[in-house]
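Deliverable D5.2: sample structural annotation.
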Amino acid sequence: MSIRTPLRRALARVVVTGVVAAGLVAVPGTAHAATYSAPLTTAIADLPVAAEVRTGYSRTLFPHWIDADGDGCHTRNEVLIAEADDPVTVGSGCSLSGGRWFSYYDRVSWYQTSDVDIDHMVPLAEAWDSGARTWSTSERQGFANDLGDYRSLVGVTDNVNQSKGDKDIAEWLPQYDRCRYLREFVAVKHRWRLSVDAAEKSAMNSLASSCTNTTITVTLAR
């Protein structure tokens, strides 16, 4: 089983930049974008703490999946194409055949796209709770379809993704590779300038104590 890398995702995926159809903004270009970089423990400490607010949340407030670059493949299929460990054939209407997908949450490989969900590393409802409720619709669309950072969207076993639901790190962790999951969750929180609640930060610090203090670097999306 091969493990995906940031370089592989960057080469395989069509990165959305600038302004997309209908005037909705996707992920900003990276040429002059600000970045954040810090060791994991510092990155956790730097996350602002705020109470979560679910009031007013609806999944429809995060439009997805969109075909931002107009190539006929919406975001879900863009991720599947990028993350395939075996070659994928892209047919008419972006139908996919062939391919194999490795779900690092449970270390299982799948050969049918129907067995793979595209997980929002930071769930949509969790993003809403943590600051996205104040964003514009275009910013929420950008978050929900973020092809600009390989950590934002990840293909995983469908029922494992369903068990995660809208839970944060204090409420759910994958069976395997929990340090990787923590690093990626923290990275996405920083990329989109989202807060954490007290229980979430405590859980992050507890898990980080058993992880290598790897530096996290992100391009800020907003």
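Annotation notes: Confidence is low (pLDDT under 50) at residues 1-31. The longest strand covers residues 96-103.
The annotation will be released with the project's public dataset once the embargo ends.
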